[in-house]
Write a structure and sequence with these properties.
Helix content: 40-55%
Strand content: 15-25%
Number of strands: 17
Oligomer: single chain
Structural class: alpha/beta
Number of domains: 3
Radius of gyration: 26 Å
Largest sheet: 5 strands, parallel
Length: about 400
């Protein structure tokens, strides 16, 4: 029996879109920024696209896809579908529908299943699912342009469903509310569990990414599926860190989602997200390449030198200079009050590792020394005797 195909009809368009992203964004747009990538599928290609724009990428696969073509539940659901007329078929994902047909082929039921479904109204969730249906030689009756299951449910519930037999291809998780709504309307629903999402086998990269998000060591986290969002929130919840993680996404760390379906778990918690107009990897990279330089950069002039303070680097007079965590923390705190004196005790608070009181003054002095050395030109950071340090600015920073 062949395995569930991971590639689906979106790959060709994704490849075109990735190439377009490489051409349309500035080659250094993401320089100085760190981006967490939770994708499992095509993460190398997506990560490489971000790195070509200068980003530092932290790879933390959140989920893995488990095919169920040998699972008894899928075989039982297929036989139940074939046991009587099917009035409607809901296809939620291209990879899932192709997986169902592949599994049926392994059981010797592919021809029967295709012929059976040809007599039903096929409802598809977006262009990817529609493409898989057409590739199987079937015609779709209607497509949810928003790629939302809620739109499909609304479409069905606007009709009389009494006695209708509806097959619903699930997309990795039980569609409890969706199915319950159809059943309450009088439909008989056959759930088709083609595959399921499980946490990635090695959860340590995801746990590290959670820690980096909480500490502000990453500037953005990119999500390409709703299950990946759920996996990250679940991993944080297991360590009592879910609320702090949501707060980080609502504050200094950008949550970038490939589309509204992916963003839904965060939107339900009131977390702002950025999304491309089209749910494609290349489009997601373009959104990040536009958003971070525009919204996550502090620009100011200090000591006659132009500074752009980014995630893990500062651009001095056009030259990118990466900074270690301690000097960067100090620089960002000074930039919060450009031109104003910041005390040593205030700077001590922002240093990574929270040095003890006895070593605090030395730690601050070392961070200032390393910051001045990394910046290069003198006169950017000034010492104010017995008071602290300041950036030699005449104007407030603009964000």
């Amino acid at each position: 029996m062949s395995a569930l195909p991971i590639e689906d009809a979106r790959d060709a368009q994704d490849a075109i879109d990735v190439q377009a992203a490489a051409l349309e964004t500035a080659p250094d747009a993401l320089s100085g920024f760190t981006i967490g990538v939770t994708a499992t599928r095509r993460r190398e290609e997506f990560g490489a696209l971000l790195e070509r724009r200068g980003a530092r990428v932290v790879s933390a696969p959140a989920i893995r896809l488990v095919p169920l073509e040998e699972d008894g539940d899928l075989l039982a659901a297929t036989r139940l579908s074939l046991a009587g007329p099917v009035d409607d078929v809901v296809v939620t994902t291209g990879v899932g529908f192709r997986g169902w047909m592949t599994a049926a082929e392994g059981w010797g039921l592919c021809g029967d299943l295709a012929a059976h479904l040809a007599g039903a109204r096929v409802l598809t969730r977006g262009p990817k699912a529609r493409g898989a249906v057409r590739a199987a030689g079937l015609d779709e009756h209607w497509t949810a342009d928003s790629a939302s299951c809620a739109e499909i449910q609304q479409y069905l519930l606007s009709q009389d469903l009494s006695g209708r037999r509806i097959a619903v291809q699930q997309h990795g998780e039980p569609m409890t509310e969706f199915v319950a709504g159809l059943r309450e309307a009088g439909a008989e629903v056959i759930e088709i569990p083609v595959y399921r999402w499980l946490p990635y086998r090695d959860t340590s990269p995801l746990r590290r990414l959670i820690s980096q998000t909480l500490s502000g060591a990453v500037d953005a986290v990119a999500f390409t599926s709703a299950p990946a969002v759920h996996a990250m929130l679940g991993a944080a919840r297991a360590e009592s860190l879910e609320e702090p993680l949501l707060a980080a996404f609502g504050g200094q760390v950008v949550a970038a989602c490939v589309g509204p379906v992916t963003a839904e778990p965060l939107a339900a918690r009131g977390v702002p997200t950025i999304q491309p107009e089209r749910p494609r990897l290349g489009a997601l990279a373009r959104v990040l390449a536009r958003h971070l330089p525009e919204h996550s950069v502090t620009r100011l002039t200090a000591g006659g030198h132009r500074l752009e303070i980014r995630g893990h680097a500062v651009v001095v007079n056009g030259e990118l200079k990466p900074l270690p965590p301690a000097p960067m923390a100090v620089l960002k705190r000074l930039a919060d009050k450009p031109g104003h004196v910041v005390s040593r005790s205030d700077l001590r608070i922002v240093l990574p590792g929270s040095p003890s009181r006895d070593s605090a003054e030395h730690a601050v002095e070392m961070a200032i020394t390393r910051l001045r050395r990394a910046l290069g030109p003198s006169g950017i950071v000034e010492t104010v005797v017995k008071r602290g340090y300041r950036l030699a600015c005449l104007h407030e920073a603009t964000l």
